Amino acid sequence: MFPKTLIFATNNKHKVQEVQAMLGDTFILKTLDEMGFKDDIEETGGTFEENASIKSRHIYKYFKIDCFADDSGLEVDALNGEPGVYSARYSGTRDDETNLQLVLSKLGDSDNRQANFRSVISLIVNGEEHLFEGVVNGTIRHEKAGAAGFGYDPIFQPDGYAITFAEMSPEQKNTLSHRGKAIEKMVKFLKGERL
Question: Catalytic one among 71, 95, 96, 111?
């Protein structure tokens, strides 16, 4: 029954490495690139749920293979939930550093640094869609710290910790990250399924 192949509807190598580490050898992930899928899937949804669903449904329709997609991002309280669904392209570019600096400059010296990372996974198995959500609360640092991770990791300090995601080992981050929580729910679901 296992290992089972799943298409992960992404070409983000960082995400693939993170998720494969969490899945272990129970599942084999195939990226869109590995499947030879080169089209852009427009993420036109207004929520993480909608965007994850758009991606997974498109890929399932195309390949007819069980797949999943995630949409995730940073929600900053003082910025009314921005960057939210626009996290990957907040500055108008897909450059991590430019996006991160825009968040810092918009926050300025604000005392309210509360934020959360949210991830929603849309899994399609045998044509049926299932949604899994993971959230981790924290604060936005005034300056970057750490060289690991990607995206907003160098400025996000999860509650209960004195370091940012970018200062953690991948293993430590995966145990408490938003994507880690959502993936954990998905894996429990998959292992309970008769695939």
Answer: 71
